[in-house]
Each structure stands twice: as C-alpha cells, then as structure tokens.
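Q: Here's a chain of 155 amino acids. Please give me its 3D structure as tokens.
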Amino acid sequence: MNSRDLQQADILQNRYGLRVAARLSAGSEQLPHDISERLRATREQAVAKRKQPVAVARLRTAPAVNYNGNTATLGFGDDVLGLWGRLASAALVVAMVAGLITIDLVQEDDRATEVAEVDAALLTDDLPPAAYADPGFLQFLKTAATQRAPSSATQ
C-alpha cells in the first residue's frame, strides 16, 4: 500500500467511526444514567486508544524524471540517496562506462582483423587488386557462378 491508500483507508475508518458514534448517541438518550456514564467512560477510553500514534509513514518525494526541452534529468526529491547511495550510483556509472569502452575496443579489434583477412586474401590471390574494382569482373563472377550451378546439379 502506498501513502495515498493509507490516507484513504484512514478517512474511511474515521467516517465509519463517526456514523457509529452518532447511532450510539441517538440510542443513549433512553438509557438510565449509570449505563450512559459507563458508555461515556468506555468511549473516552476508545478515543484515547485511537489517538495513540501509530507508526507514521514518512512522506517523501518520489524519484521523478524532469523534462526540459530535449533533455531529461532525474530528481530525487529531498536527498533520499545519502552518501552510500551516491557512491553506489557512481560505481554503477563507472562500471557502465568501462563496459562501453571494452565493447568499443573489442569491436575495433574485430574490424581490424576482418580488414586484415580481406587484405591478405587480396594480396595472396592470383588476380591483381585492380580486377576487383572492374565492373566487368563482377559481371564475370556472376555469369561464372550461374554457369557452374547447372553443371554441379547434374553431377
């Protein structure tokens, strides 16, 4: 339950108590004096017991996202985090940045490896590198691939 539900339940409980008290007061006019005095003393005890403070929920501002144009910032209300919360948040940010840097380095290494493999294949191949740039060579590869496909299907 959140604080709004607790407040709503408290309001409903108070309304019910007022209705019961009104009903009892209406019926107590016809009772003898000694019984009405005992009822009054019992009511006072009930009211005193009801007024005892129960665990009071501390109301705090909830974390919220504040939008200002194209930017968004987090608002933490009345400084809920404290020292350890701030240190934990900073540690998480550092871990996230370290992870992003690691991902970038790994991807850069993978790209360099792929480029090196392509360069090695080009340099060790029988064809000169200028042949790969020739548009006619691309057409030659396409026609050669289609001519090989029917011959390989018959075997």
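Q: Can you summarize the key feature?
A: Residues 82-124 form the longest helix (43 residues).
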